[in-house]
Amino acid sequence: MTDAADGDGDGPATLRVLGLTKTFGDNIVLDGVSLSVNKGKTVCLLGPSGSGKSTLLRCVNWLERPDQGAIFLGPTRVGFRNAGSRIPMTARELAQVRARMGMVFQHFNLWPHLTVLENIIEAPMHVLRRPRDKAVHTAETLLKRVGLIEKRNDFPSRLSGGQKQRVGIARALAMEPEVLLFDEPTSALDPETVGEVIAVMRTLSTEGRTMLVVTHEMQFARETADEIVFIDRGRIVEKSAPQLFFACPHTERARQFLQRYSVR
Questions:
Q1: 51: which DSSP letter?
Q2: Structure pTM?
Q3: What is the Cα–Cα distance from 224 to 98, expressed in whole angstroms?
Q4: Percent of the chain scored above 90 by pLDDT?
Q5: Which CATH superfamily is domain 40-51+90-261 in?
Q6: Could you tell me which residues come within 8 angstroms of residue 87 by beta carbon, excluding any fewer than 6 positions away?
């Protein structure tokens, strides 16, 4: 097996997925998917609805357990004690690995009974064992970055969708993750608030954050991604730089997809 710490291209792989397979009953959702995300790069996962993109992200974070294959975060094999072991991680060990991957969900997943500030400091205090004053300082700094410091004492019910998603991004960043996972972060937003979330994500990319993004925002993918991974029916159909993918896709399936979205 290839060393999980080695990457393709110009940097080490922060995240590597090898031969991932996932089925639900007789439905093959992922069929031997392999990809890597190099340190400081943004990889966008594109494809039609139901192609397996979100399931792939949930397997990476071990919210869904894959049937076959391996996931490495740096040298750590996600879900197992070591690279060659079949002994699963304990719940605490898995929580520690998940803390290294910041997940931003499609439907925000904020705790409704906690304020914005409390939502952000909860995991750093209980998973990373950060003192409350340090967790609060970090949370307030991040809220300033996403333009929501004035909302720190509000409950999620008082926020717009775009504001909720920016809180979700701040919550993920508070864990100081090695990689950020975005699962269609704008799909639940109205058109007026999509832009404010995309702006934050673009800033994170230009800062050199390592990001794996499931998205239907073609303009964001074309302008921000370092690599496009196109998935259809659980398989990777095409991988290429965004300039090549959007200007001259290699496969007929990718051409059909782009024509549907009118982005060529």
A1: S
A2: 0.91
A3: 25
A4: 86
A5: P-loop containing nucleotide triphosphate hydrolases (3.40.50.300)
A6: 80, 81
